[in-house]
Amino acid sequence: MKRKKALPLLLSMSILGAFALAGCGGKEAATGATGDKADAVNPDAYNNEPVTLTFYSHNASVLNNAELDALVTNAIKTKYPNITPQLITGTNLDKLIAAGEVPDVILTSNYYFHDLIQWGLTSDLNNFIKQEKIDFGKFEPESIKVMRSFSDKGELLGVPYALSQGMMLYNKDIFDKFGVPYPKDGMTWTETIELARKVTRMDAGTQYIGLDMGQPTTLSRQYGLPVIDEKGEKAVLQTDAYKKIYGLYEKLYSIPGIVEPKKKYTYGIDFFLKDQKLAMFPYWLTPTTARLPQLKETGKDFNWDVVSLPTFEDKPGIGREVDFHLAVVTPTSKNKKAAYAVIKTMVGEEAQRAMNRGTRLTILNDPALKKETAMDTKLYEGKNLQGIFKVKPGPLPKSNKYDLKIYPFLNEAAKNMAYDGKDVNTVLREAEEKANKWLQENK
């Protein structure tokens, strides 16, 4: 804890030093951003000088040069041949900050964005957005709403470039085996659990699992539930909404065969794709797309399909919470102009179309583009891929930097229900007590 608190201070000192060296040049840039000549001269425009632009992926699934090429290099190589993107791997942000080797651009997700804020790795991009006339009205609206919520000062600390979409995978072979109708678009979670009951069976010594809803955050985030109050002081886990969520898990765990006592109560994407004993599994489009080529390579492909993510009766048409990847320009970068040029290109229509036809979903709120999703991969030929867009991303409450610390208590509550048969009220009370104790000891 002490080291992480020291890192932003170290970085802030570097930033102040950079401002001091900039001298009057910094003042001119600030004046140019708001003065009369702002539209005529853009002080942040890239001047085509050769530059190596460093990138780091903080849980953004850019793990190698091939993935960086697909996302960045191929998009900019014609327009900006003098920019050479370079991916930093084999280390972590703590070490990079301590060594004074902070990358120019960090790619991350809204789920992990608070990490970058705490480490002092973000900068305000409002001037860049204004000068380059980037129209956020064309973006998925919930993504911009979430980005704005990260600052109380009106700052825009990152630019979304790729969206993920929740969906439900299902194994047609299991439904065919037991003569049960397939799931459909537009089902509720209650209906889905009842359908799972019909395909959770033991057959010839093999236990088939009807549904894995994942950890409770799958449903609580979809419902838009915070884990901490607006003041950030105490956990709020004993609400009627949380009781509703855990009531669904209680119904699921009550199905004979769903829980393997003391061994397994959640199963995951690999159990669905590799073991092929799980009938239904809610997941995300992007990581599914990344895994499907491996499935084909193993020769163990099977008859599967997708439908829209199940919803709540009182929130029809609302799927999984908005989830997206975004780009951050670090405050100490010496190549901000090149970074801005790259980000502008990444969110442009041409780059978005190419990305969307590949392995990542466009951030643009364009129905025509979504009809082309993953088309070039041919992974969803004959599948109901367009059905997943019948629900829209759900809104999120304002996030808190302690959210990720509280989630394990929610997971433990579900485990106690599954293994020990504890009731909803008991597990939520225990989870809230543990969460509040953690907050008191660590804030």
TrEMBL record:
A Pfam family annotated for this UniProt entry: SBP_bac_1
**Superkingdom in the source lineage:** Bacteria
Its signal peptide is 1-20
> What species is given as this protein's source?
Paenibacillus allorhizosphaerae
Q: Which PANTHER family match?
A: ARABINOSE-BINDING PROTEIN-RELATED, DIACETYLCHITOBIOSE BINDING PROTEIN DASA
What is the protein name stated in its UniProt record? Extracellular solute-binding protein
Q: Which residues cross the membrane?
A: none
Per its UniProt record, what InterPro entries does this chain match?
Bact_solute-bd_prot1, SBP
Keywords carried by this UniProt record: Signal
